[in-house]
């Protein structure tokens, strides 16, 4: 049995052999860069107008309009003192432009342009290189690509980016009592639901569970399933059958497949029988079958590991310390992750904390971490991991 901190340290200390791939920019959201992105040219790459209006040469209140430049025009026009050209947002400003005046502050009389006020030098001009200079590092390796990041990389003219590959994940659920939703249910059976919760939690954070299979509580079948799925996985997630019952075959089946145990059992509630192991550069999490245990363990242990494997710098759920909105006593002798709701900068620990109960996890948005046998008074600060 290890502590929560020990388990987290074992997970985060794994030496990872990172793989990278070239992906189309459009598919790169949520991936982490496997190389620095360097600006191949200045952004903006030419001085351009920030407004629809007039490019002006010299400081005055009256100008002669001598032409027009639209966005995308490539011509090289040069202005003389007292001249103005009609210009539009994003269009290249002519040489010798002193300033741009937005059209709302101008009056046109024939070819004369009359301003409400004199322009300030340089106003409404976006200068070449003011955002990024050629050769500058735009994003460092390990940057996780956001929508704005995709936009900026696109503006550098790149159509593909080299990113760290995301882990290949497969999921095995076990248990004789479990049947697929949609099928008729007999007394003593329950619907299999953990695979839905875990695979969608993967998706929530940009990971894909390649396959989900279900195996009955039969040692040989579980052993065979692990062998097959381990071959095609970077991370194999099992769910159920990891405790100490006569039909809990997962740990032994992992051993027989040559998986080395990195830890088994964490002093926590829920999720005590959590298992983590490895075979070569493949990793296995065996999550306890109780629905709230498996999903909590996914969030606290599996997610940061998947993110680490994907080359992310910041891993794990967002964590905040917030005041609790009511008195609370954790009666458990184990440190606990409690289903909670963060609202208006306060934390409410929800009813229905049993490891088998998903409703509180489904309507809540956080896991509140509380030490064993601890009392909280309303207003005391409590650590919250945000799950949504
Ligand atoms: N004698 C002991 N018994 C148990 C201990 C213990 O220390 N000593 N630990 C308890 C704790 S804590 C947990 S958590 C569970 C975990 O057990 P398993 O990982 O072996 O899970 P199962 O027994 O297979 O299932 C537990 C529970 O969850 C339901 N389940 C399982 N898989 C699914 C699924 N895919 N979808 C929906 N529900 C699922 C299953 O029907 C059981 O009700 O062990 C305690 N026992
Ligand atoms: O640790 Mo178990 O997950 O309490 O039910």
UniProtKB/TrEMBL annotation:
Top EC group: transferase
Signal sequence coordinates: none
Reactions that this protein is recorded to catalyse: adenylyl-molybdopterin + molybdate = Mo-molybdopterin + AMP + H(+)
Associated pathway: Cofactor biosynthesis; molybdopterin biosynthesis
InterPro entries, sorted: MoaB/Mog-like_dom_sf, MoaB/Mog_dom, MoCF_biosynth_CS, MoeA-like, MoeA_C_domain_IV, MoeA_C_domain_IV_sf, MoeA_linker/N, MoeA_linker/N_sf
E.C. designation(s): 2.10.1.1
Cofactor(s) this protein requires: Mg(2+)
MoaB/Mog domain: residues covered: 170-308
SMART domains hit by this protein: MoCF_biosynth
Cited CDD domains: MoeA
Statement: the UniProt record of this protein carries the keyword tRNA-binding: no
Keywords for the protein's UniProt record, in alphabetical order: Magnesium, Metal-binding, Molybdenum, Molybdenum cofactor biosynthesis, Transferase
Family: Belongs to the MoeA family.
Protein purpose: Catalyzes the insertion of molybdate into adenylated molybdopterin with the concomitant release of AMP.
Protein name, per record: Molybdopterin molybdenumtransferase
Organism whose genome encodes this protein: Mangrovivirga halotolerans
């Amino acid at each position: 049995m290890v502590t929560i901190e020990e388990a987290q340290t074992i997970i985060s200390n794994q030496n990872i052999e990172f793989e990278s791939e070239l992906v189309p920019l459009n598919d790169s959201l949520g991936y982490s860069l496997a190389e620095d992105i360097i600006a191949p040219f200045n952004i903006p790459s030419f001085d351009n107008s920030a407004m629809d209006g007039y490019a002006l040469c010299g400081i005055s209140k009256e100008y002669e309009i001598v032409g027009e430049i639209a966005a995308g025009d490539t011509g090289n026009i040069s202005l003389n003192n007292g001249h103005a050209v009609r210009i539009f947002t994003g269009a290249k400003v002519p040489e010798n432009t002193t300033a741009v005046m937005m059209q709302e502050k101008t009056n046109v009389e024939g070819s004369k342009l009359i301003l409400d006020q004199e322009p300030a030098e340089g106003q409404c001009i976006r200068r070449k290189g003011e955002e990024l200079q050629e050769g500058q590092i735009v994003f460092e390796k390990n940057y996780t690509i956001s929508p704005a990041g995709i936009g900026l990389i696109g503006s550098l003219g790149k159509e593909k980016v080299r990113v760290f590959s995301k882990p290949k994940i497969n999921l095995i659920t076990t248990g004789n009592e479990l049947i697929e939703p949609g099928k008729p249910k007999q007394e003593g059976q329950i619907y299999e639901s953990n695979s839905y919760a875990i695979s969608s939690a993967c998706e929530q954070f940009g990971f894909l569970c390649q396959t989900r299979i279900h195996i009955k509580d039969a040692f040989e079948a579980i052993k065979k399933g692990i062998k097959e799925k381990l071959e095609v996985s970077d991370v194999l997630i099992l769910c159920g059958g990891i405790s100490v019952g006569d039909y809990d075959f997962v740990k032994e089946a992992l051993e027989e497949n040559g998986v080395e145990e990195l830890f088994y059992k964490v002093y926590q509630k829920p999720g005590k029988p959590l298992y983590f192991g490895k075979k070569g550069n493949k990793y296995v999490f065996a999550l306890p079958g109780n629905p709230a245990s498996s999903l909590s363990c996914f969030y606290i242990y599996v997610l940061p590991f998947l993110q680490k494997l994907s080359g992310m710098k910041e891993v794990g759920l967002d964590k905040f310390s917030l005041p609790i909105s009511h008195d609370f006593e954790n009666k458990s002798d184990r440190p606990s992750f409690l289903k909670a709701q963060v609202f208006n900068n306060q934390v409410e620990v929800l009813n229905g904390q049993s490891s088998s109960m998903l409703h509180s996890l489904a309507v809540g948005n956080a896991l509140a971490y509380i030490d064993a046998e601890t009392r909280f008074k309303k207003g005391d600060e409590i650590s919250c991991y945000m799950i949504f």
